[in-house]
Amino acid sequence: MNVSNFAFLYRYALLRLLVYIIQGLQKVVLFLTVTEKKRILREERLPAEPLILFKEWYDLAAGSCINLHEAMALSTVSGNGRPSCRLVLLKGFGKDGFVFFTNYNSRKAKEMENNKNVALTFWWNTLGRQVRIEGTVEKISEKESDEYFRTRPRGSQIGAWASEQSSEITNREVLEKQVIFYEEKFKGKEVPRPPHWGGYRVMPSTVEFWQARLNRLHDRIKYTLLPDKSWKIERLAP
Ligand SMILES: Cc1cc2nc3c(=O)[nH]c(=O)nc-3n(C[C@H](O)[C@H](O)[C@H](O)COP(=O)(O)O)c2cc1C
Hints:
238 residues, 9-stranded antiparallel beta sheet, 7 helices, alpha+beta, binds flavin mononucleotide, single chain
């Protein structure tokens, strides 16, 4: 082994050690802030609406150094009833629902056009928490999509034009050529939102909160939307 290889390995080992120390510290902080007792989902402490609990959980996940805490699995169903699932990023949530952005010609978009029933799943590893949401989906307004598109980095804006998401391409060059084409096309100008790109809102009909507990005796609390718009709350066996 020559000297430069050794120096590289030494630096790599130091970096790994630093990462382990940071991850360890992160776990200690979490342990101190969210103890087993605090995690317990007690019926008497549950809010009447799932959004309140979701916000509490989401905010904690956001403040817990969880990598991509906003990532959620989105499941859709094809015309012949076959499910498919992929990760997308949550970009906003509120009383109206949970918003994400994508390509309106993508596979998921075609499936959602056909069948508006979707499911979302979050997993926050260090907190031992999962949230499952089921509901229906609708496109958000063009104005809302425009507003969000304007906040994206220019590279991502060009990418939204360049990539015909989910369609087959011969090789990577095709994509890179498209990027060059659109960089040239919008040179010195603001990149407009492509008409085939925008947001969706998932309006929940059920929301399940899953909290890991000792001996796999996890807590599961499920909220179900009733016709009068109130929520039924039930506990499920883990
Ligand atoms: C962590 C993560 C976040 C992602 N976020 C998005 C997103 O917000 N929107 C999106 O269209 N694709 C996102 N993707 C890519 C999708 O998982 C998927 O590959 C793409 O949307 C095409 O899916 P489809 O062919 O089923 O439509 C993300 C992937 C990962 C791994």
